[in-house]
Amino acid sequence: MPVTVGAINTAAVSGIPAASEGENYTLVLYPKVGLGDGRHAYNSWLQELPDPVTKVTWDNYACLSVAAARELGVEQGDVLRIAAGGSDESSTLELPAYIQPGQHDKVVAVAMGYGQVSSARFVDAGPEWILRRPTVGDNGLVGKNAAPLLSLEGGGLRYIRPGVSVSKTGRKTELACTQTHHTITVPAELATADTLRRPIVQETTLAAFLKDPHSGQHHFHVFEGDLYPAEDHPYTGHRWMMAIDLTSCSGCSACVVACQVENNVPVVGRDEVLRRRDMQWMRIDRYYSGEGDEVDVIHQPMLCQHCENASCENVCPVLATVHTDEGLNAQVYNRCVGTRYCANNCAYKVRRFNWFNYLHEDEVENLVLNPDVSVRSRGIMEKCSFCVQRIQEAKIEAKRHGEPLADGAVKPACQQSCPMQAIVFGDANNPDSQIAKLIQSPRQFRVLEEINVRPSVHYLTLVRNRTEEEGSVHHG
Amino acid sequence: MNRRIFMSVHECEEDLLGVVKAVRQQGLKIVDIYTPYPVHGLDRAAGFGPSRLPWICFVLGLLGAGLKVWFEFWTTAQDWPINVGGKPWDSLPAFIPVTFEVMVLFAGVGTVIALFIATPLYPGKKAVTPFARTTDDRFALLLEEEDATFDPDQVRMLCERYNAVRVEEREEKY
Amino acid sequence: MADVQTGLRKPWILGDKSLTQVSQDICGILERKPTAMWWTAFLISLSVLAVGAAATIYQVATGIGTWGLNKTVGWAFDITNFVFWIGIGHAGTLISAILFLFRQRWRTSVNRAAEAMTIFAVICAALFPLIHMGRPWLFFWVFPYPNFRGPLWINFRSPLVWDFFAISTYFTISAVFWYIGLIPDLATIRDRAKPGIRRRIISFFSMGWDGSYRSWIRYEIVYLLLAGLATPLVVSVHTIVSWDFATAIIPGWHTTIFPPYFVAGAIFSGFAMVLTLMIIARKVMGLEDYFTLRHIDAMCKIIIVTGSIVGLAYLTEFFVAAYSSNPYEQFVFINRALGPFAWAYWTMVTCNVISPQLLWFKSVRSCIPMVFILTIVVNIGMWFERFVIVVTSLHRDYLPSSWADYSPTLIEILTLLGSFGLFFSAFLLFCRFLPVIAMAEVKGILSYGKSTGHTETSKELESSTKPGHAKAPVGERELEGASA
After folding, report:
1. What is the spatial distance between Cα C116 and Cα C106, in angstroms, rounded to a whole number?
2. How would you classify the pairing of strands A329-331 and A160-172?
């Protein structure tokens, strides 16, 4: 597969920009987690759902491996022409490149389900203002339809097509990505070797775990004492906490959509995502560890950690975010004046700000809103509430029956929708609850425990099914 | 009741200081002195007592600080205690900055209001200058002719020794 | 009295002015018609203000989304501009209060203009926390007033509340201080003015000041008290502003060095701005005798000192980050110097640490165009300092997943420009309608009429300054008209 990298400037002659071309790639078409084959392309929640791995929204793209991209001289966002033999329009596809570590070097992967006619309705998606960029592409639709490149073989659809060529068109587009730094390590030129990896995820191997269930644990100097009188905030009633098992989490993002639906979280459109203003209360942080194409993937669901010593609460001038006596970090929408100080001072960056009036009065769209949750207007902060409306409902229900609140009676939307049951929520003050047991687990850790904000969200060490005892064990 | 005022106008502060010291030695009663700028040392020379305004400033500052620290404690720990970031109800160290600012505000603004009342000064007040140029470049010394021992001619000679550019006597109601 | 001009000191005001000459020089500016230069400058400033106002109105009407902020970088131009303008303001209070307490007589030539600058800068500064709010129309919620929500008070633990109190107190005290200083001068203008509307207005605001020494005694003590209050106030204000960052948990913000570092930086930028303004004003309004090369020299020295403190703070931050062995903290500082905003960091270092070193040379300090350029360079650097602190700390904090870039939108840039338009429009109006130099204070430091009878006065002075009464022209003397 000889690759010519811009050796001759053909642009001057034919009007086609200089193209480096790679032959003999295999095109892999795949249904996307959110959109499937495209039958839900009209659904803005799914269009704005970040892909579990690439974290791109509102577009499909051509995934290339790191090595292939280097070989073709392609950078992220370069528009590629993918030609599958034949010169007719239907056998070529122009899509922005996405460099995907871990992919096979000779594969170009393109998601199905885009370029659907039903996505034409997003032409006006997102807030209206002078510098706004459209959510739909030049074709008036979201993404490009890759279906014409499917082939029929033996009465079945073939999703794999060998022998395609890939060339640069010379154009570039931006991909609306909710995460732009992909590794769990910081750039090597900006840190010393032993501080490259951020100690925010604990991981170990199965072999190491079987030997020592505490394996992979970070050891931080956590201040054990307390400068404040403990009797001020005793938490004698319920104490809501959550545990997320990183071993179970597959990154499918069902929780993200479930949360968005439950909590009336607005869809903001491609331009706002490009500006890093996605509004989903819950996000799945996807980190690569390792070098080049040899990477491990970590999925870490990240939501408001409901810190006991919440740094956001302390800085709000108007008491718009305060703590409840059940350990919830409550956001009082109608008190918020929108200084954004809380979001800045959040170590987890889980607060979302209504930069515009995202939700408009619309008779049909209003039907989709959850009547138990306030719709937020412009200029105020919002974030995960641990589905407080569900907590209240369950408490009232239990009171009506005159029974104590049973463990598992409150399930936030994310927990409810998690197919892997990776998320457990409950009252940590109830010693018989599942959460109370999980937080005693040897795998338990909390993100950024060392800054002593005392999060209520606990994580369980990611155990990789490997026989080596070394490899991904990090001592902080 | 009327009183007779003797006015002597000078051109520079040196002469003024000299004449003020001289008339004080003579035991004459100084009604007031009008100067275009605050002449350093004139208060001692003229025997004018110090102002009591610093006390007002001090008391108001204490009052402002006291009220504010009480108010912060009352709103945060008593009236409606709200758990903010796990901080104790009585977060005294966090109350200090605002307390300090309110102390300065009370002391500063209060002192200025006290100045306006004591002087008195108020917007739209009509200025009564004994001599038109005392706000520009003239220094006017006003003496009261208390009794018969006041000898205008002698005093004028004294003033002229200090380069008085103008000397006059007038009746004034008070 | 005699310590005012000790032997080795030359007078600060040139041209052997008499008292009335001072009134003439300063009031004359206000009594003439504005020059074409003034009109040009004013109209330019006003247009820039109008553009900024349009951008601000659009932003308030549409949403903060019209700025380039995002969920990671929640503050950028807004708070940068806020800290920048507050810092500018600090020089005014420093000159009027701290130098007053230190008996630095040269302050009299600049304090009025510097105080005016303070007030306008604080207005510009206060604008940004107001318009940066998501719902600016509810700004009054940060004030603890009784209400029907409980009453629900405010969070006295929040540095933004401290800020609100600090800025409003600072503005009030600065305005009062400035106004108190203006009263005797207003009286001077009043007594010179021809009868008419102008005289009536000035008369109204002069509060009936008559120059009575009994009033002067009180006035002086109040001035001293205000200076004594304003001195810790000005230090507290920038300390509190720095606490907006220092009490936060974000690496790069959470730094105990911030209060002194911010105060020094504020004085640094403020002095640069005073110099910028006064170099223009002395030229345009012919105030070379009042604002002399010696004043410029003294102020340049303060710029060197504060610039060096700022430079030391930059180094200390790196040292503390290295010494802390906190990986987040270490990363933030390396990221500042070598990361995506390295250009901003090195702009800051070049403008704030390297360029002021030129002022060590007497030849640079006495070259007015050079000083003028350097003061502008310093202010560019100080703007970038705040930008670096605000943005580089936020854009790459704890979790790499939320790292984001930031670039301003046109709306943001126009809003920043508009604040300069507001500042210069206000300053130009001030130059037209109020005395730029505190006449009553300048008169007090003239050598006029202070030679004889004072044994401490140096020989040098005696020879250079004639006794006042001998100097006054005979024609001005009214002795012949004196009545008995």
Report:
1. 17
2. unpaired
Q: What is the pLDDT of residues C245-254, one digit of tens each?
A: 999 999 999 9
pLDDT in tens, C182-211: 888 888 888 888 888 888 888 888 888 888
Q: pLDDT (tens digit, 9 = 90+) per residue, C83-94? A: 999 999 888 888
Tokens of C146: 């009784």
Q: What are phi and psi of C351, to 5 degrees?
A: -70, -35
CATH of domain A203-464: 3.30.70.20
Task: Assign domain A16-177 to a CATH class.
Answer: mainly beta
Q: Compute the nearest-CA separation of C195 from chain B (Å).
A: 14
Which residues of chain A have a CB within 8 Å of the CB of C323? none
* Helices (H), ranges, A40-159: 44-47, 66-72
| pLDDT of res. B122 | 84
Please report, for chain B, the start and end positions of each structural domain, with discontinuous segments joined by +. Answer: 2-50+128-173, 53-118
- Kindly report the pTM of this predicted structure: 0.89
| H/E run at residue A14 | helix A11-14
Contact flag B168-C173 (C-beta cutoff 8 Å): no
Domains belonging to chain C, first-starting first, are 19-463 (1.20.1630.10)
CATH superfamily of B2-50+128-173: ACT domain (3.30.70.260)
Q: How far apart are CA C386 and CA C384, in angstroms?
A: 5
- Give C180 to chain A, closest Cα distance, Å: 33
From first CA to last CA, the distance across chain A in angstroms is 45
Is there a contact between C468 and B122 if contact means CB atoms under 8 Å apart?
Answer: no
Taking every pair of C-alpha atoms in chain A, what is the biggest distance, in angstroms? 83
CA distance B92 to chain A (A): 11
The pLDDT mean for chain C works out to: 84
Q: What pLDDT, on a 0 to 100 scale, did the predictor assign at position C471?
A: 39
Interface of A with B (CB under 8 A): 228-229, 232-233, 308-314, 316, 319, 322-325, 454
Q: Show which of residues 138-167 on chain C sit within 8 Å of chain A, judged by CB atoms.
A: 138-139, 141-142, 152-155, 157-161, 164
pLDDT per position as a tens digit, B37-90: 888 888 888 778 788 888 989 999 999 999 999 999 999 888 888 899 888 888
Beta strands B2-10 and A160-172, pairing class = unpaired
Please, which pLDDT band fits residue A89 given cuts at 50, 70 and 90? low
H/E segment holding residue C188: helix C159-192
List where CATH 2.40.40.20 sits in chain A. Answer: 16-177
Does any CB of chain A come closer than 8 Å to the CB of residue C135? Answer: yes
In angstroms, rounded to a whole number, what is the distance separating the alpha carbons of residues A198 and A474? 10
How far are the Cα atoms of A447, B6, B159, C322, C484 from residue B151, in angstroms, in the given order? 93, 10, 12, 83, 12
Please give the full DSSP string across A149-215, using - where no structure is assigned.
G-EEETTEEE-EEEEEEEEEEEEE---EES----BSBPPGGGS-GGGSB-TT--EEEHHHHHH-TTT
Nearest beta carbon to residue B101 from set C150, C159, C169: C169
CB atoms within 10 A of CB C312: 15
pLDDT tens, position by position, C231-289: 899 999 999 999 999 999 999 999 889 999 998 999 899 889 888 988 888 887 777 78
pLDDT(B129) > 80: no
Give a three-class secondary structure readout of chain B. Answer: CEEEEEEEEECCHHHHHHHHHHHHHCCCEEEEEECCCCCCCHHHHHCCCCCCHHHHHHHHHHHHHHHHHHHHHHHHHHHCCCECCCCCCCCHHHHHHHHHHHHHHHHHHHHHHHHHHHCCCCCCCCCCCCCHHHHCCCEEEEEECCCCCCCHHHHHHHHHHCCCCEEEEEEEEC
Q: What is the ipTM of this complex?
A: 0.90
What is the pLDDT, as a whole number, of residue A22?
65
